[in-house]
Structures are given as C-alpha cells and as structure tokens.
Amino acid sequence: MNTGRRAELVARNGCIACRSENLLELSSGGFDEEPLRTFIADDPWGENPLPYLTGLRWSYVRCADCNQAFHKYILSPEWNEIRFSKWMTAEAIRKFEDAVQTPVTRFESGKGRTKHALALERLTRPLRGDAPVRVLDFGCGNGDFLATCALHGFEVLGVDRSAARRGNARVPVVSSLEQIEGSFHAVTLFEVLEHLDDPRSVIESLRERLVAGGILVLETPDATGVTRIANKSDNDKIFPLDHINGFTPRTLHDFALRLRFQSVQRPVAQVSCDFVRVVKTEARRLLQPLLPRTTQQYFRKSVDHG
Questions:
Q1: Which of 47, 26, 49, 22 lies closest to 36 in space, CA to CA?
Q2: Own/partner long-range contacts of 197-205 (Cβ < 8 Å, ≥24 apart)
Q3: Of residues 204, 90, 70, the one with CA closest to residue 138
Q4: What is the pLDDT of residues 257-277, one digit of tens each?
C-alpha cells in the first residue's frame, strides 16, 4: 500500500559503456503519462508501482562518442530493492511467465539452452583438458540454463538478485558476485545486460572470474531504431523501470571489445530430429561468416591482457 512516498530516481551522467559525459537526449516523458502508464498498469505486479512513480520523469539518451543508448534516470538502490521484493513478487513473476510461455516456446527455449551448452563445451576444450566445464550464469533466474548444463556434466553456479527466483532454482544460486570463489571457463548473461545499473562494472568483475581465454556470452533485446516509447514493442525493449540499457548488435560488440574481449563465432550445433531443420542448420553453418551480427554474441577473454 502506498504510504505517500515517491520513488527515488538517480542520474547516470556518464555513458554506461565508455563513461563519456557527452550525452544527447533522444526522448523523455512521465511515468504517469500515456502510453507508458497503460503499459505499467497492464503488467502483473505484487504491489502496483504506479502510485510511487507519479510526477517522475524518464529520459532516454545516447552517447555522442560511442552511440550507446540508455535511460539516464534509474531507481535508487533502495527503490530497486523495493522493486524486487514488493513489486516483482513470486506470484507476479509466475503470472508474467504464464502469459508469455506456451508448450512451443518452452520446447524452443529448451532446445536453445542445449545448443548453448554444446557450444560452450566445444569452445572451452582447449582451456580445461578432460575437466568438466565450469560455467557461471549471471542473472540466471530460476537456473533453467544451468540445469541443462548440469545434465551435460558441467559444474554450475548462478547469480540472481531476486529472492523469488532463487527460491525456485534447481541449481546452486547466490545473490551476489561477492559470494563466489574460484574461476570459470565460461560466463553467460542471457537477457541481463539491459537490466543492469552499471553493466560495465559488472562485466569487469565477471572478467576477473574468467580463466584466460574463457568465453563470455551476451544476449540482449535488439533496440536498433528505438528512440522513444511510442508502442508496446518500444516499451518491451526500453522499459524505463527494467530495460534501462538499449543495445544494438554494433554497440553490444563494441561494449565487449572495449572491456578486452575478442569476438568469436558461436559453434553451430544440431539439436533436431527434423531432416529439413538439419539441412537449414548446415546451410547456416556455411553462411555464418556472412550473416549480420545479432544481439546474441560470443566473446573470448583476451589472453594478451591477462
């Protein structure tokens, strides 16, 4: 229940990628203005955040030096905890997932997780010999990807700040990087980078936990061409309470290279009993060097810089 308090926003005055303060505003508006107000109201929540957001404004900016786009104003650490504990409750998360998942999407997601596991096994062979793959999934949610990896004999560990999601995890999941010891052959962030207050610092910390030559997997929504919140599709990509960083294939690639990673091709894996799909996958294998980048990319930690 709203006690009359208003949520607190803090400003990010430097670029999330290059730290430049040369920022250009692309668009702005109020949280209680349309169409954003309706998008917030239509989402499932524990406690409705709208009363706390009345009168607050968002500002979507782009760095003039590196072209990275992001929301300038984000929830303060205190209010982010309120978002995770009171707004995004376990019941609200379940309702959201039930609304977007079907048997078909669950099957495709499971198949995709297996393909990622096979790719990581292949790419990390030179790093580990006969030892199992050690993988850390940051922002792992319920740990579905890690559970798939565990079935393939990987040693797995996840990080997720949501107590509701950790409570449903089937694999070891901790709440912060500070609780992690040791190094990993691979670190993955699936649909996570767009949520982080300071994604650069997070990747720098994760880099220290990767062995030399270790693999980093980044995947985000593609915010190419999105400069304002005009419709539901825009909101899904740059929702100012949650999707606070807007990456494109180019800015995601440049972001990782700036942090001393090298781009690598993801190995193509066959996970199908359908002959036509097998043929299409093999065609993709041949065409892969010619295909445009997406916002799902693989990188290797540069050995030259330790």
A1: 49
A2: 197/12, 197/74, 197/80, 197/244, 198/16, 199/16, 199/17, 199/245, 199/255, 200/16, 200/17, 200/19, 200/255, 200/259, 202/138, 202/177, 203/255, 203/256, 203/259, 204/259, 205/177
A3: 204
A4: 999 999 999 999 989 899 998
Residue 82 has pLDDT above 50, yes or no: yes
- Count of CB atoms situated within 10 Å of the CB of 219: 19
Sheet holding 296-301, edge to edge: 173-174, 155-159, 134-138, 184-190, 210-219, 296-301, 261-264
Query: How far apart, in whole angstroms, are the C-alpha atoms of residue 152 and residue 185?
Result: 15
Q: Which residue has the tokens 């980044």?
A: 218
Structural domains in the chain (count): 1
The pTM of the full predicted model, rounded to 2 decimals, is: 0.94
Q: What does the alpha-carbon distance between residue 146 and residue 113 come to, in Å, rounded to a whole number?
A: 9
In a domain, 138, yes or no: yes
How confident is residue 93, by pLDDT bands cut at 50, 70 and 90? confident
Query: What residue numbers bound the domain in which 117 lies?
Result: 101-219+260-301
Q: With contact defined as beta carbons under 8 Å apart, do 193 and 216 qualify?
A: no
CATH at residue 166: 3.40.50.150
Q: How many helices (H) and strands (E) does the chain have?
A: 12, 13
| C-alpha span between 231 and 221 (Å, rounded) | 16
